[in-house]
Please model this.
Amino acid sequence: MKQYKGFFIDLDGTVYAGTDPIPTAKTFISELEARGIPYLYVTNNATKTQEDVVEHLKAVSGIDASADNVYTSGLAAVDYAKKTYPGARTFVVGEPALQAQVEEAGLVIVEDDIEVVIQGLDRFASYQKLATASTAIRNGAAFIATNPDVNLPTEKGMMPGAGSLTAFLKTSTQKEPIIIGKPYGYIMDGALERIGLTKEEVAMIGDNYHTDILAGMNFGVDTILALTGVTKPEELSTISNKPTYTLNDLSEWRFE
Model:
């Protein structure tokens, strides 16, 4: 096994399964800490702040993390917008975490003369909010979507995700968004910048071939599939473009 200088790690399905911990992940992360190997939790969830994720990790998995260990698609969208459209007049379709991140980045949140629309999951979105976003996009505003996840698992079953609202805006505007989250490369680009390593020095770890693993492949970094979540061995057997490594769980990774 290649000895990487850093890791990007997915959360749900890799570190925990909803509210259930995956114990081998905690052991793996403890080993990273002991060896001083940097890592980032890279997640498509844009409804949580870094601090929210840290709190959830502690409560569910007993893992101590800092906000600097967390990189969400919301943060990645804001990083992209700040770099590409500095100081832009921005309209947010998203929940308080995303709104706060937009403000902290120095982007001006407005409801008219909109230059950029940043859209994530918004479980409280009104028709008026979506209409404002749609009108701005049709009038030329940049359309940035945090992630493509059309559904997300809940205790009530699968519920609409950020990608469902993206589909609404795509249909109403006939415009294609810039999609930031996995499996697209923008989130990986931001993560690589934050971790301060090269593509050859890091690996992407995740449980979902179609998001985590393809994100790594699309970005040109090695990938480690943990069979602890979405992707099952029988599905992987039908896929020709395999991950760099496939593990039953993270206890199988060897550091030496």
Q: What stands out?
A: The chain has two domains: 6-44+182-252, 79-179.
